[in-house]
Structure formats: C-alpha cells, structure tokens
From TrEMBL:
Main location: nucleus
The name this protein goes by in its record: Cleavage and polyadenylation specificity factor subunit 2
Entry's localization field: Nucleus
GO biological process, one term: mRNA 3'-end processing by stem-loop binding and cleavage
Domain of life assignment: Eukaryota
Listed GO CC annotations: mRNA cleavage and polyadenylation specificity factor complex
GO molecular function: RNA binding
Family note: Belongs to the metallo-beta-lactamase superfamily. RNA-metabolizing metallo-beta-lactamase-like family. CPSF2/YSH1 subfamily.
Length: 721
C-alpha cells in the first residue's frame, strides 16, 4: 500500500477559529500551525493538549497569531517539545508578533524557500520543504514528501503579486497525493480595482476634513503592505499629514524587515540590486513604541496604524475609545476581525451605535496591598530556602550510602558503643555523624563534645580544594537564553519592550467597563492579501490533487467549496470535524526495491542540475532477506532509444537561439529560425500545440547547414541518456 496519511483537525474547521492540524505520515506526527486568537481562550487548546506530547515536528506557515499564537503556551504548559520548522521571516516576525521569548533561537530550524530538509530518526525518509505562499512575509506552502508521494499544506495563500510580495507557487504542484487547504475565502471575491483605490481616497478625505484616521493592524504581517502603499501615496501626492506606526515592537519590526528583501517581491529586490534603494527606509512614517509619544505629538489630523487588528487589546483599543465619539474621525478596517471581537462587531452592517469596552491599566501596589505582597514574597522565599536545605540533606545522606560504616574509625563514636554519647539531632530531623577532638577522653558521666561531620567528595591538593574551571563558565545556550529574554537575537529591544520585561515593581491590573458612543465613520476595505473564491477554484483545478482536505472556513464556505471540488477537481474531498481523524492514504501500490551493488557498479550517472541520473536495465529479484531488489539482467540488454531529459519551453528557446546569432521569431505558434528551419511543439497523435500526454519538439526544414546547427543547439539544452 502507499504511504499512510491521517489528518486530524485540532482547531479551525467549519469556522474561522485559529488554525492547527495534526498530520500523521507513516506514524510521524506533524503539527501544522499552532494558532490562537486575541482572546487567548484556553478552551480552544483542549484538543491540542491531548496530543501535544506525541508531536514529532511542528511546521509554521505564517507569522501571525492565528497560525502560531499558541506555540509558546504549548511549549510551556502542554508538553510540546518537538522541533519547529519555519522560514526566517516567520521565525523573526513571529517572535515580534507574540512578544514572547519562550521560543529560544535553537528551537526553530529556519529554512529557505524550496530547501529540502531530510528528517532523521523516526522521520527517516520524510522530506519537508517550504514554498512561497504570499499573503505574509515568509508565508509558506509546506510540501511533505515520503516515498515519492507529496502532501501539500496550503492555507492563506495569495495568487496576486503585491508591492512587497510575489504570488504563491502553489500552481506549480501538479497532482499531489494529498492537498490540505482552506475554504476561508471560498465565498468572497476580491473587490474591483476602483474599490481598492477608495482606500487612499477615504484616508485623504478624512485628513483634509480635519479628522484622524485609525488603521487597526497586526504587529508584523499585512501592515507591511499597507506601509508601502501609504508611503508611495504620500510621495506621489506630496501629503504632509503625519503617519504613525504604533506597536511595542514597531522599530524592531522595520529593522528586521529591512534585512528580509530577498524574501520579497521581484520589484523590491531588483530596486535594491540596481540602486541600493531599500523599500522600508520609510520617509513619511514615524515609528512609535508607546502611546505617550503619540499623545505628545503635534495637534492636527494624523494617520495611525496601531495594533491589535481585533481592537481587543493594545494601542488600537485605547485609541478607538478616545476617537470613536468624533464624527470627523475614521476607523478603517483592512481585514475581517476575528470572530467575536470588537472589530468584527463594528464591521457588522449596520454597525452598533454604542459598544461596551473594558479598559485595563497596570498600577503599582501601595499601602496594605503592598505590605501583604511583600509578606507573601518573604514567606515564599523562606519556603524555598527550607526546601533547598532538605534537598541538600537528602543528597548528603544518599552520597554516604547504607554500606558506609565508619565504626572502625577511632575518631567516630559508634551509636552502638556504650561509651558513645547520643547523636546530635539536626533541626530538620536528620542526624549528624559525631567526631571527638583528638586526644580528648570524654568522662563516662557526661556527654562528649561533638561536632557535625559532612562527607566531602571533593578532590584536594596541597593548596586546598581543586577548582573545576568549567563550573564557572557561562554556557552558550545560557547566554543565548539571557539575550532572548533581554533583547531578541541581537540584543535589540524597544524602550517600551524593555520597560515591560524589566519592570519588577509589584503591581496589579485595574479594569473598568465603559460604554463608547460610536459616531466616527467605519469603513472596511479588503486588503487581506488572500486568494479570492474564483482564484481558489482555478488553482485547485490546476493542481488536481488525488485527495483534498478542506479546513478553516465557515460551514457555508466549506460546503460550497466541497461541492465545487467534487464536480470539478477530484472525487475524494474530505471535511473533517475537530478531533476527527481521516485516513487519506493513497490508493497507489508502492514497493521499495534495493539496487544491488553488482548492478550499481556498472551504472553510468550523468549530472542533471542538483541530481545525477542514469539509464538502468535490470530485472526484479529477491535478496536473502526477502526484500525486492533490482539485479543485472541475465541476457544482454537490447539497445534503447536515446532519451532527452529536461523541460524546454519555446519561450526560453527564442532568446537562447538569438544569443547564438540566429534570427528567430514566433509565427503561428512555432519558432521560425532563419530562412528555412521551423521548430514546433506537438502533442499526442502529432497534433500541434499543447494537450495532455507526451509532447515532442519537432524540427522542420531542409538538411542544410542551418538545420544541423540549430539541432545541435537544441540538443545542448537537454541531457542525453
């Protein structure tokens, strides 16, 4: 049978909840994405908690809360200890997004796009590779390969090329064994370009009327595209209204992004290569890391991009409360709010006129609360010291051992000796071994002077105890951990971030509920950067997986896409429920064979890019251990026709021949080379053009010098076996 594949959703099916899926391949358990929401609802992690300890590897696709938000919690609380794989931007921006340092730098293996990573141990034979997804910087379509069969995980991808990202490469995969994808946008179509231009118009109109504009954004995801759009628009129209990017990690985000140009779109990388122009050297955007900087900014209309996008917490929450009652202001949403959040409520049609919000702030403890806190801390320290002393005593007893009899030592009083005094009882119930002063004979009627004796296993020389220098060296991993707690991988830390981490003053959170009258303008314009319904259906038809698993989307969207795919994509479409395991093992019959050493010794390999290929004539036999093996054939092999290996496109052939001095032009779907020779690509049955099945490249023309020259050039683009 084929490679065994089971898929178990842990979160994010038939709804818009965070994404988290268990994919088992021949018993090797992948956790693909580990998302949470801005409510940080522990109940969502209950299915994950049941399997966290069985996870063998974690694959992350995007650097936002919905895709990796629960990973620090799962590592700290749920027993998740598997290695983590992601692209470099997902790792870096994920740290900033989560603002949590539980992910030490060695807990994530960072891969480049299209890099194959061969798992070892339990995962021997499995290869994982990230590919471009679009949507977010570093966003990943994961390809998992075992025994020649591909399992593709592709969620939140974008087909369109944007200012800072290329489109997805999902369409380059054809007929994988299993495709796991989402139905999130199956019922949505991208707005026309005219509606997208309303984004800039709505902002400029509000600012010119004297109002403020709030864009609730994520920390390090889609906000990058918005910053470039606004930067270009401000430069094109010579606007002088201030733009503020306000998050606790805004400066770190931009610093990191400046170094990720190779992960971005072609236009950005080419611009940097030719003119050293970094697109994220923002000239019109001011980076802020605390709200006091915004409060102290000059009066007047302003545009603020602030986190979080859900309005549930963060600077955007506080700014909304302050600005919502002014009719001149605008709150512009560029993505659908997470389900059940304030942002989603405000995006309802028509929106509520009044909303209840909770305002929370941290205040230092004073008076009786501070005294009680300090007393509690003192009590806890005493308990810890007591526990430590007990542990030390038990270790000392264990080191002595039951067979360590000191009765033969004349300096030690044996408890069984009639002349020995009673043992001295240690305060915590232990008993010390007693030693007499040399030369002192205790009177029979009194207790001898006794002193505690501890077994010392240390080595000594003429100058005292031998010191081991390694005991005083700070280990690299300890330094790395300390650096992560203080300032990320390179020690950088925003001022606001440092104040949060390093502030050890006793404090408490005070919350109160307010009713906010919403009088400002509320607008939603889709800048999510996801493929729309039409694109999804087109891509799935092109990929044509053998089996399809649909996750993450409303019940209506999931059912709609399922019915479409059953008719137009493949007959095997699955929509599992939470914790429902489905078996999507392929129906193909796959066998493993060994290549015998005798056969391999006569095989001639030829280099093909990163691989070596060869033609093998062999027969299938069995070895002594019963496994199938390819053995040399018993009779001489008949000659075989030459095989040309490679993928030559007509569009690539034209500039190649032109570079060789041959005049080439397209004519009627063929290449006209010089005066006499024509090159065509023909399909099965000699039909010209494309079509399914084997295709051939045909050279037509008289047997002249140009013919042989062009044929030689053509052959040079292939590998001959």
């Amino acid at each position: 049978m084929g490679t065994s594949v089971q898929v178990t959703p842990l979160s994010g099916v038939f709804n818009e909840n965070p994404l988290s899926y268990l994919v088992s391949i021949d018993g090797f358990n992948f956790l693909i994405d580990c998302g949470w929401n801005d409510h940080f609802d522990p109940s969502l992690l209950q299915p994950l908690s049941k399997v966290a300890s069985t996870i063998d590897a974690v694959l992350l696709s995007h650097p936002d809360t919905l895709h990796l938000g629960a990973l620090p919690y799962a590592m700290k609380q749920l027993g998740l200890s598997a290695p983590v794989f992601s692209t470099e931007p997902v790792y870096r921006l994920g740290l900033l997004t989560m603002y949590d340092q539980y992910l030490s730098r060695r807990s994530v293996t960072r891969l480049t796009y299209s890099q194959n990573y061969h798992l070892s141990g339990k995962g021997e034979g499995i290869v994982v590779a990230p590919h471009v997804a679009g949507h977010l910087l570093g966003g990943t379509v994961w390809k998992i390969t075992k025994d020649g069969e591909d399992v593709i995980y592709a969620v939140d991808y974008n087909r369109r090329k944007e200012k800072h990202l290329n489109g997805t490469v999902l369409e380059s995969f054809v007929r994988p064994a299993v495709l796991i994808t989402d139905a999130y946008n199956a019922l949505h179509n991208q707005p026309p370009r005219q509606q997208r231009e309303m984004f800039q118009d709505a902002i400029s109109k509000t600012l010119r009327a004297g109002g403020n504009v709030l864009l609730p954004v994520d920390s390090a995801g889609r906000v990058l595209e918005l910053l470039l759009i606004l930067e270009d628009y401000w430069a094109e129209h010579s606007l002088n209204y201030p733009i503020y990017f306000l998050t606790y990690v805004s400066s770190s985000t931009i610093d990191y992004v400046k170094s990720f140009l190779e992960w971005m779109g072609d236009s950005i990388t080419k611009s940097f290569e030719t003119s050293r122009d970094n697109a994220f050297l923002l000239k019109h955007v001011t980076l802020l890391i605390n709200k006091s900087e915004l409060d102290n900014a000059p009066d007047g209309p302003k545009l603020v991009l602030a986190s979080m996008a859900s309005l549930e917490a963060g600077f955007s929450h506080d700014i909304f409360v302050e600005w919502a009652s002014d009719v001149k202001n605008l709150v512009l949403f560029t993505e659908r709010g997470q389900f059940g959040t304030l942002a989603r409520m405000l995006q309802a049609d028509p929106p509520p006129k009044a909303v209840k919000v909770t305002m929370s702030r941290r205040v230092p403890l004073v008076g009786e609360e501070l005294i009680a806190y300090e007393e509690e801390q003192t009590r806890l320290k005493k308990e810890e010291a007591l526990k430590a002393s007990l542990v030390k005593e038990e270790e000392s007893k264990a080191s002595l051992g039951p067979d360590n009899n000191l009765s033969g030592d004349p300096m030690v009083i044996d408890a069984n000796n009639a002349n020995a005094s009673a043992d001295v009882v240690e305060p915590h119930g232990g008993r010390y071994r007693d030693i007499l002063i040399d030369g002192f004979v205790p009177p029979s009627t009194s207790v001898a002077p006794m002193f505690p004796f501890y077994e010392n296993n240390s080595e000594w020389d003429d100058f005292g105890e031998v010191i081991n220098p390694d005991d005083y060296i700070i280990k690299d991993e300890d330094m790395d951990q300390a650096a992560m707690h203080i300032g990320g991988d390179d020690g950088k830390l925003d001022e606001g971030s440092a104040s949060l981490i390093l502030d050890a003053k006793p404090s408490k959170v005070v919350s109160n509920e307010l009713t906010v009258q919403v009088k400002c303008l509320l607008i939603f314009i889709d800048y999510e950067g996801r493929a729309d319904g039409r694109s999804i259906k087109t891509i799935l038809s092109h990929v044509a997986p053998l089996k399809l698993v649909l996750v993450h989307g409303s019940a209506e969207a999931t059912e709609h896409l399922k019915q479409h795919c059953l008719k137009h994509v493949c007959p095997h479409v699955y929509t599992p429920q939470i914790e429902e395991t489905i078996d999507v093992t392929s129906d193909l019959c796959a066998y493993k064979v060994q290549l015998s050493e005798k056969l391999m010794s006569n095989v001639l390999f030829k280099k093909l890019g990163d691989y070596e290929i060869a033609w093998v004539d062999a027969e299938v036999g069995k070895t002594e251990n019963g496994m199938l093996s390819l053995l040399p054939i018993s009779t001489p092999a008949p000659p075989h026709k030459s095989v040309l290996v490679g993928d030559l496109k007509m569009a690539d052939l034209k500039p190649f021949l032109s570079s060789k001095g041959i005049q080439v032009e397209f004519a009627g779907g063929a290449l006209r080379c010089g005066e006499y020779v024509t090159i065509r690509k023909v399909g099965p049955a000699g039909q010209k053009g494309g079509g399914s099945g084997t295709q051939q490249i045909v050279i037509e023309g008289p047997l002249c010098e140009d013919y042989y020259k062009i044929r030689a050039y053509l052959y040079s683009q292939f590998y001959l076996l």
